[in-house]
User: What shape does this take?
Amino acid sequence: MLVEGAVRGMSGGIKSLLLKTGSSTAASLRSYYPRVRDRDDIEVLRCDRSGAIVLRREDHINPAYYANKTEGVWGQTERMKALAVGRNDTERRAEAFRSLISGKRWLDVGTGSGGILDALSPCAGSVVAVEPQDSKRAYLVRCGYEVYASVEDVPDLQLEVVSLFHVFEHLTDPVGLLDQLRAKMELGSHLVIEVPHARDALLSTYDCEAFRAFTLWSEHLILHTRQTLKAFIESSGFSLERIEGVQRYPLANHLYWLSNGKPGGQAVWPELVDEELNAAYARILCSNDASDTLVAIATAV
Assistant: This one.
């Protein structure tokens, strides 16, 4: 009853989870921004205790939302374009998790265009995926992948590795999904979750208004901090091994946001893109807990 009263006027399961895990209190959830980029009727809150950023309401997202979401005809041309856009992330994830997935029974949840399947299926023992969007799933099946519409549909394969790359923040019941996954995983198997970070330097250090207006989105129900990501994971029969900061976007991107209020600085100013410079900048951001991304690795217990 305490939780129900605390979240009155703030519809949605994410805020209830923040309260139940002790990450937030009713008083710590304060107005942060009046809207999201694609809707004027959704306010954004920020927790003074945990630093998490969460939508005041989430009734616009339901179990059928992503299944019914369409992006036109999905075929080889569309997939190739999507793979090109996500190539840097796919290569980084493949390098980071190849040894973890090698020879293992692996499930990727919310696989999208399946770039990570292309990269790591040759080394995995077996591969299944979940993709709720009908057109994408159908095309991946035609490509030869075993893809299901939901975690419920995945056979009980005693999975050894499960990954969710930029999926967890979209879920109305993330802890419930982890419970479903845990039931299909072997003891000692690994869970990998990658999410956008609420303490992204453009939000926290630089307080960039243009970036805030751009990045807050109706489909991102929560932007996690280390505290909330740990709390959600450990609520579902997993033991957290570590959370690492990852910086996806380089210095040129941030400079362009600060000077022009727009994304894409790495493409506009390629002369400022340098591997050593970007690596050094990423190290500084990660050391200050201001990276744009968090990656959690946990073990099923």
About this structure: The chain has 13 helices and eleven strands. The chain has one domain: 2-249+291-300. Residues 1-11 have pLDDT under 50 and may be disordered.
